[in-house]
Sequence to fold (346 residues):
Amino acid sequence: MMPEEEKDDSAEADERDSAAAGERRVGLWGASQSGKTTFISALFLATGRLTSNDVRIRGNNSASTDFLIRNTHALNQQRAFPRPTIARQPLSWTIQMLVPNRVRRWSLRQTPGLVPFDFNVDVQDVGGFEHDPLPEALAEGDGGRLDIAGDGVVAPSTDIAAYFATCQGLLLLIDPIRELEKGDAYNFFFGTLLRLAQQQPVPAGQKLPHYVAVCVTKFDDPVVYEFGRDHGLISYRDDDPVMLPRIHPDETEAFIEQLFRSMPKSDVDLLVGGLHQYFDADRIKFFVSSAVGFYIGQHGMFDVLDYKNVAVSGDGKPVIRGQIRPINVAEPLLWLGERIAEEARR
Fold:
């Protein structure tokens, strides 16, 4: 039987965990049109395809729940990409997962197993505009305020960095197709990074405390997939009956560096350098993701000759051909949750 003192300590620890759950935050970071809306829209489908049933997502307000319902329906039933998000309030979801149980140092027995852990995923810059390093509104002298709702609802351009300073984790999205065409990922990145460093100064010799998951999106696009295939960076798992292509976790950062080095306009190498300059290397992890995944035909296996899951309709709009099979959509958030949980146990 558990001693009374141990019961009290355990109850107090659980109460502290519950109170802290709302303060565990992951901020979504990315340029305008970098795919934040589609990424989050695919999250519910991604958690549903996990082999474990121990991960759930819920909206923290009506707008966030409606967002998931509307956009999941668009992706899964209508085979259509969701419209870019314009909202009047920040969007927020809670990820509920299980993490390895802490060992209570006052207990005579170890208590292995899994325990619940919650954290929030928030989109503060619902239109994506606040990531501009020097917003046009600021240059015009109006105090740096931007209309993010399209009808005069404004927010200070520094709000996103101030919010990131309250987060333990950051999810950074990079769209390789946008980078190929415009090469502006670093331009959106460095201004927010410098504002974050201002908001959260650290002593010399130390770095910012956040965990950062870097997601290069659109793995299903021929520009990304065929680069990996042609450079011998694609692998397949023998235990995967569908034989979906993947980038080995140990090769992901190298794949990303080589991919963007092949793009004349890209300066993602500066972005990666900036990450290592301001965040500890063991707090950064790279992923290659796809919100829609690859096309799988009636034969039920990946076909290198027929893998494109996105086609163009007669009116020029992109449409999704087959089932949504998200790749590395839930995984970056689960990695962040596990790291945040470890930090909370220290």
